[in-house]
Amino acid sequence: MVVNNSGTLPAAVTGRRGGVEVTVHFSTQLDDRDWLVELRPPGAARGSVTDAAPGQRVELPDGHLVLRAEHVPRLWRATVSVDVPTMLAAHGRPIRYAYVPQDWPIGDYQTVFASNPGSAEMPSAGRPFTASLVTTLVSAGITVAPITLHTGVSSIEDGKPPLPERFHVPETTAGLVNLTRAAGGRVVAVGTTVTRALESVASGGSVRAGSGWTDLVLSPKRPAQVVNGLITGWHAPGASHLLLLQAVAGRALVESAYRAAEGNGYLWHEFGDSCLLLPT
Predict the structure, then answer these.
(1) To which H or E segment does residue 192 belong?
(2) Over the chain, what is the mean pLDDT?
């Protein structure tokens, strides 16, 4: 079982744009130290601000940012005058969307595996795991190995592919994956983030250690090579994650699982239910 040890940042802060309050979501830091950010109206907004423009300045708790260019719809490249992780630690809060009924502390947005802060939003497939459950799995002979993939904001338009994300697959994890496959075992990824990271360094049915940015988009046209089981939450129709699920488990199993979930009132999004997809 391969898990994502990325921790969730308190990636939302309150700023002021032209004297008007605005919520800033910090998504991803780029190699040139600019950040991708999303601007939203204050409160439980259901969308981004619609009048952002290059050159606009947003005052932050300890500094400011300047919008440079729209990177993709909703996300802007911005130059920030302060160290963002330090500012978020002092003034940030978890990103919360309208379907979450109340503010919860950052601890509720961490998985039991979180040890490497960097995700704008929780790698939520690992949320149902507890220390006790992990101990039970290890006692049953299941090996647990980590990767790191830092997630950006999830508010990209439906049907759009995920943006490049920073990842790291350590040498020990690559070796354990290859040993498991050579022994005829199953490699179960806890989440689409883990699947994307492992498949980004996969070739010929094995993986190698690797780090950097991945822009891999898995789908039935580009099926998984090394992951043959997946623990996942429920994603909205039209989300690119559904194609990734099909790349691992096949279309028939994924559609059957979704019919069962919808018929039984399962919950979606990061605090919802999870399922284990084990294709034969």
Answers:
(1) helix 192-200
(2) 94
Separation CA 241–CA 219 (nearest Å): 9
Express each pLDDT in 6-61 by its tens digit. Answer: 999 999 999 999 999 999 999 999 999 999 999 999 877 678 999 999 999 999 99
CA distance 146 to 128: 17
| Predicted pLDDT of residue 43 | 79
Which of the residues in the chain have pLDDT under 70?
Answer: 45, 155-159, 237-240
CA-to-CA separations, 85 to 62, 92, 120, 192, in angstroms, rounded: 12, 9, 11, 25
Residues in the chain: 280
Which tokens sit at 191? 């989440």
- Beta-carbon contacts of 194 under 8 Å, excluding residues fewer than 6 positions away, are 2, 3, 4, 123, 125, 147, 149, 227
Alpha-carbon span 1 to 6, nearest angstrom: 16
pLDDT the model gives residue 238: 59
246-251 long-range CB contacts below 8 Å, 24 or more apart?
246/219, 246/220, 247/195, 247/218, 247/219, 247/220, 247/222, 247/223, 248/189, 248/195, 248/218, 248/223, 248/224, 248/277, 248/279, 249/277, 249/278, 249/279, 250/220, 250/279, 251/220
Q: Which residue do the tokens 């647990």 mark?
A: 144
Which domains does the chain possess?
Answer: 2-8+103-277 (3.40.1780.10), 12-91 (no CATH)
Q: Are 22 and 40 a contacting pair, CB within 8 Å?
A: yes
